[in-house]
Amino acid sequence: MDIIMNGQAQGSVAATLLEAGMDANILRPYVGADGRHYVTLNQGGEPKAVPLSNATATLRKDDWIQLDSAVVKAAQPRLKAVADLRGRGLTYDIPNGMGRTVLETERQSDISAAEVSMDGLRRSNEDRPVFDLVSLPLPIIHKDFGYTARQIAVSRNGGSPLDTTTAELAARKVAEEAEKLLLGTYGTYAFGGGTIYGYTNFPSRLTKTMTAPTASGWTPATTVQEVLEMRDQAKDANHYGPYMLYTSSQWDIYLDDDYSANKGDNTLRDRLKAIQEVQDVMTLDYLSTSNAFVMVLVQLTSDVVREVMGMDITTVQWPENGGMSMNFKVMAIMVPQLRADINGNTGIVHGTTA
Q1: Is residue 112 part of a domain?
Q2: Which residues, listed in sequence order, are joined to residue 137 by a DSSP beta bridge?
Q3: Secondary structure of 188-213 in the HEC alphabet?
Q4: Measured between alpha carbons, how far is 271 from 65 in angstroms, rounded to an integer?
C-alpha cells in the first residue's frame, strides 16, 4: 500500500509522487529513441523531457501515444455535458491538482439601493457586501488495468501494437463518472466540509413540474409553454441567459417528431431552439437513471457553472512483482462547481414530470 500522510510518503509510488511535487507525469516513464529513459515534467510552466537516473521505463514513447490516443478516443463521446462547458471556456484550471484536496471560493452579497434626492445631502445606507467561504472537494476519478511484462515483450518483439481495449474501457468509465458528477446522477460527494453537486441535485436549483408527453391531453405546445415558464423562473432569479436546454433520452421520440400537422415543417426540438436565449437543445445519455422525462435549463456563464480541472484524463503506470507486471491507472480530477450567490439565486432550472 502506498500512502501520503502529513507530508510523509509511505511506499515507492507515493515517494516518487511526493518527490516530483505530485506531478503525475513522473509515473509516465518512456524509453526514448536513444535508448535512455525519460519522463516529461512541467518545469516553470513548460513541459520538459527529463532523463531518469534509474532504468525504470518499460513502454516506448509510441506505446504511450497509442495508449493516450485510445483513452482520448473513448472519452470524447461520453463527456457531452462536460465537453459543452470546456468548449465554452467555462473551466477553472488548478495547476498541480494532485497537490490539493479542496478548492475554496467566496460568495458575495449585494448592497442596498442608492438614494435619489435633489441636493445629495441625505445620507444613504453605508452597508457593505458580505462574503462567505464555500469549499469544493477535489477527488480523483480513476480506473485500473494492467499488462504483464510478457505481453509488452510480445508486442515489442513481434511488431504488433498493444491491445488497448482495456484502456479504452477504463477511460470510458472515468468519463462516465465525470459526466454523472456534473449531471447529479452520480449522487453527492462530500469531503473537507464541502459537497459536490450536479444539475439535478444542487440545493439552490430551481424546480419545475412538467407534463409528461405520455399524459392525456399533452401536445408539443404544452412543453413549449413549460420551457418558457422555466426561462421565466431563471429570469426572476436574475439570470437572463444564454441557456442550454438538456434533456433525457426519453424525450427524443417526441422532440424529433413533427411539431405541427405540416409534416416536415419543423420538430419540437426546432421549436424549442427558436426560444430567445436558448442556444441549443441537447440530449444527455446520463441525465436520468430511470425511465423518466427530465429537462434542465442552464445559464452557461461562469457564475452559474464551471468545470474545475485539476488534472485532465491521464494514464500512469508503476511496476509490481519484480517488474513482471505493470499496473496502469486512468485518472482525472474533473469536478463540477455549481454556483449560487449568497442569496441562493442561480440559473439552473430542473424540470421533472409529476
Answers
A1: no
A2: 102
A3: CEEECCEEECCCCCCCCCEEEEECCC
A4: 44
